[in-house]
Amino acid sequence: MKTIVHLLRHGEVHNPEGVLYGRLPGYHLSDDGRLMAETAAKWLTGRDITVLCSSPMERAQQTAEPIAQALKLPVSTDDRLIEAGNHFEGRTFGVGDGSLRRPEHWPYLWNPFRPSWGEPYEEIASRMLAAMADIRDAASGHEAVCVSHQLPIWVTRRKVEGRHLWHNPARRQCGLASVTSVTYDDGRIIKVDYAEPAGELSRRPSVPGA
Q1: CA–CA separation, 54 vs 22, rounded Å?
Q2: Cβ contact 13:28 at 8 Å
Q3: Three-class SS of residue 27?
Q4: Residue ranges of the chain with pLDDT lower than 50?
Q5: pTM higher than 0.70
Q6: Burial of 93 (0-12, 13-18, 19+ CB in 10 A)
Q7: CA spacing 20 to 30 A to 166: which of 60, 85, 110, 155?
Q8: Which tens digit of pLDDT belongs to each residue from 121-155?
Q9: CA-CA distance, 183 to 173, in Å (whole number)?
Q10: Half-sphere exposure of 9 (CA within 13 A, CB side)
């Protein structure tokens, strides 16, 4: 019996200050972000989706809304799909004009493999995979959608594919409103696919997000 769990990254966030918003409240989708969510909903329409779940963050919940409307499904919230914790949350991040120029932040940068500045990659992957397993069981024999965030989705994919979890953030294959689809066969992961339904919108110049 095959079941597919689609990990959908939320759409673009309104973030004119360019901060790393992480788990901070009050960060909602931009106008383009809402278009991305609607485009993803159209892409998912027609699939055998029976379960829709989302991170508790506002941007994820807003991304789930047009999918819920299109598929006539309720949205459940799972805290395990939340964005990763990060010491630099609420700050800009850069060498010339951001947190990296301030010595008090340097101790948090000593270990990029764990990483030392936030929630450990292994813990992120563990909670995501646990959530996915429960959602897979709820949608057994069908498909499910989980709306989450770039880092949790990307680290989970790397874990599934047997790659080390530390990585260059600039090389993540997890665009805005992208879909990483994990196929299970009787509980065993057999395939990972990737698609960018809102690719044209997501490639526009943007501001930092998660």
Answers
A1: 16
A2: yes
A3: coil
A4: 95-96, 110, 207-208
A5: yes
A6: middle
A7: 60
A8: 999 999 999 999 999 999 999 999 999 999 999 99
A9: 18
A10: 30
